[in-house]
Write a structure and sequence with these properties.
By secondary structure, this protein is mainly α. 83% of the residues lie in helices and 0% in strands. The protein is globular and about 55 Å long.
Length: 195
């Protein structure tokens, strides 16, 4: 298994893929689990926070499909950089907008679409990192590493909030993590060719 992941010059691609998945799913699952609570803490009524979560999930569904379609048509590295850049901008927007249902729904939709799209981009890139006979092992290992992020992300938010961080600070601490995920994914997209 180590040879499948790191042999024959695959070590850099594997490290980039794992970094992208780990940090990307860290951010995505933190938002998926904590977004309503963070918004309620910012002054949004509970019912309105639920609507923002609906917008986040709807954006995620549409963003995933759109990313899949575009990955086959556009320059992959440019698209990946654009998606992650838009995700970071949407995170900052979500942290900056006042506790208004319309504004937060728009920001929630955008972060859902772009964060989910970013994950779909990684899924689209992953098979290209490995030869056919090793592809299942390589992609499976990357997804497993990402699942570690999906477990640790929500726990991290709880630790930050317990330590006295504000909801805005929790959202903003995700920016550099998502930027690192995006950098890894963009570098990966420049290295690999479609499978």
């Amino acid at each position: 298994m180590p040879d499948a992941l790191f042999g024959e010059g695959r070590a850099v691609a594997t490290a980039l893929l794992w970094t992208g998945f780990l940090l990307g799913l860290f951010v995505f699952y933190l938002l998926l689990n904590w977004l309503p609570s963070l918004l309620i803490s910012r002054g949004l009524p509970r019912a309105d926070a639920s609507w923002v979560q609906v917008a986040f999930n709807l954006g995620g569904a549409l963003g995933s499909v759109a990313t899949g379609l575009l990955m086959d048509r556009w320059n992959r590295a440019a698209l990946v950089a654009l998606i992650f850049g838009c995700s970071i901008a949407a995170l900052v927007l979500l942290a900056a907008v006042p506790a208004s249902l319309a504004l937060m729904m728009a920001a929630g939709f955008l972060i859902g679409a772009t964060a989910s799209g970013a994950q779909m981009a990684l899924y689209a890139l992953a098979p290209s990192c490995y030869p056919t006979e090793m592809r299942g092992t390589g992609v499976g290992a990357a997804v497993s590493v990402g699942r570690l992020g999906s477990v640790v992300g929500p726990l991290f938010a709880g630790v930050l909030l317990k330590a006295g961080q504000s909801p805005i600070e929790v959202l903003l601490v995700l920016v550099p993590l998502f930027a690192l995920s995006g950098l890894a994914a963009t570098l990966l997209a420049r290295r690999v060719r479609p499978a």
